[in-house]
Write a structure and sequence with these properties.
single chain; Cytochrome p450; six-stranded mixed β-sheet; three-stranded antiparallel β-sheet; globular; binds protoporphyrin IX containing FE
Length: 423
């Protein structure tokens, strides 16, 4: 049992009733029974398994509280370098740069930078991108149709993996996406999404961030000379106005944007299609009533949240559910557990595209709520709509889904589908 009672602080949490480590193959295949057991054992647990020690929160109300309450700080990148004596300096550049990204900042830096970035996600800008995104979706699906000899295709490789990076590059104003973008983002995600990253994962993340920075430095130089109506040009203009403080702060936002919407969106598309096809009545209902699509995407985000947990640091000593939380300790609000909390959702383990119980915490909440949410919803709706129209008989070619190995980012590594069988 790796999640344990923390006996050194006077106040006594109830011990966990789990007889195995939290993260193992069973958990990665289906974390929800474990979340339920944790939630039923108590709202808060101490686990040594995550970053050398963290509080786990299991209830929807507590997860929301931590995301919204300034007593919990977003500055948490220190855990990446803490206790890494074996790798001196290896990660300090990585940590120093990424620590300046919006996701890891508190006020006053956070609202200053968020305001700059927000301008790039305005509804009129997203509307302007819509036809281009639609075109990329069509192009990717056409490619599947053109491979006549294929009986099945891997939806992740054909659509869910390439699409998000194409969309982000449209948003950032990158004309020629680099082959390496996906690999760089994956290296960052595999480090950030890992409770105990290996030395090799750390090295690769650092190398990819260096490569990413080099790429963005030349892009920024280009945008300084020839600005466009894109997010990177907005960041450059904000730097000139003093709203972005220096080149490193600028680079940090670019790297974060490239990474933030990549793995997450892939997982929404992959897990979403899988869930709908595993519940054929819901798939057929969507075909009959496509107006249910926006609510369906929200439900898919709740049912299998791509981001299963995020992190915060305790900014000031406080007591939560009888536990003494000390300044500096790490807290992991378990979004995946909150999304299945029966105190918040009726029948939480049932996929119901007509649920209509409001937005889940899949995009977070409070000051750091996902900036890409509207873009993601638009993109996902386009994909599901095209799939429903193009391949009404779409079906799973393999009943046993293959889930990835990162507990923070839940998603499929492959999703073999049959497009033509009954089309
Ligand atoms: C299914 C897709 C996505 C999911 C599930 C998702 C989820 C999240 C979550 C949970 C947070 C809050 C993290 C926290 O509070 O610690 C967040 C923040 C953020 N997301 Fe997303 N995201 C998605 C797609 C995107 C996309 C496409 C972009 C951009 C192109 C994006 C950009 C961001 C940014 C910039 C933040 C940081 C906001 C801040 O710190 O103020 N996300 N996202």
């Amino acid at each position: 049992m790796s999640a344990a009672n923390r006996g050194d602080r006077g106040a006594e949490p109830r011990p966990l009733a789990l007889a195995r480590p939290l993260v193992d193959a069973v958990f990665l295949a289906n974390p929800y029974p474990t979340y339920r057991a944790l939630r039923e054992a108590g709202p808060i647990h101490w686990s040594e398994e995550f970053f050398g020690g963290a509080w786990l929160l299991t209830r929807h109300a507590d997860v929301e509280l931590v995301l919204r309450d300034p007593r919990f700080s977003a500055q948490r990148t220190g855990t990446w370098v803490k206790g890494r004596e074996g790798a001196p300096g290896e990660l300090s550049g990585f940590q120093q740069l990424f620590a300046r990204a919006l996701l890891f900042l508190d006020a006053p830096d956070h609202p200053r930078i968020r305001k700059v970035l927000n301008a790039g996600f305005r509804p009129d800008i997203l509307q302007g991108l819509a036809p281009h995104i639609e075109q990329v979706v069509t192009e990717l699906l056409d490619r599947v149709d053109q491979v006549e000899h294929l009986d099945t295709f891997d939806f992740i490789e054909a659509v869910a993996r390439p699409l998000p990076v194409r969309v982000i590059t449209l948003l950032l104003g990158i004309e020629r996406p680099q082959e390496d973008f996906m690999a760089w983002s994956e290296d960052l995600a595999s480090f950030i999404g890992e409770p105990r990253p290996s030395r090799d994962q750390a090295r690769r993340a650092q190398a990819s961030l260096v490569a990413m920075s080099r790429y963005f430095e030349s892009l920024l130089a280009l945008k300084r000379q020839t600005p466009g109506d894109d997010l990177v040009s907005r960041l450059v203009a904000a730097e000139a106005r003093g709203e972005i403080h220096d080149g490193a702060e600028l680079l940090a936002q670019c790297a974060m944007l490239l990474f933030a919407g990549h793995e997450t969106t892939r997982h929404l598309l992959g897990s979403g299609v899988q869930a709908l096809l595993a519940h054929p009545a819901q798939w057929q209902r969507l075909q009959r009533e496509p107006e249910l699509l926006p609510g369906a995407v929200r439900e898919l985000l709740r049912f299998d949240s791509p981001v299963q947990y995020t992190g915060r640091r305790v900014a000031t000593d406080l007591v939560l559910h009888g536990q003494q939380l000390r300044r500096g300790e790490l807290v992991l609000p378990l979004i995946g557990a909150a999304s299945r909390d029966p105190a918040r959702y009726r029948d939480p383990d049932t996929l119901d595209i007509t649920r209509g119980q409001g937005a889940s915490l899949a995009f977070g909440s409070g000051p750091h709520v996902c900036m890409g949410a509207a873009l993601t919803l638009m993109e996902a709706q386009m994909v599901f709509w095209q799939l429903l129209k193009r391949w009404p008989g779409l079906s799973l070619a393999d009943a046993a889904p293959r889930w990835g190995d990162k507990p923070a980012y839940r998603g499929l590594v492959a999703l073999p589908l049959r497009s033509r069988a009954s089309a």
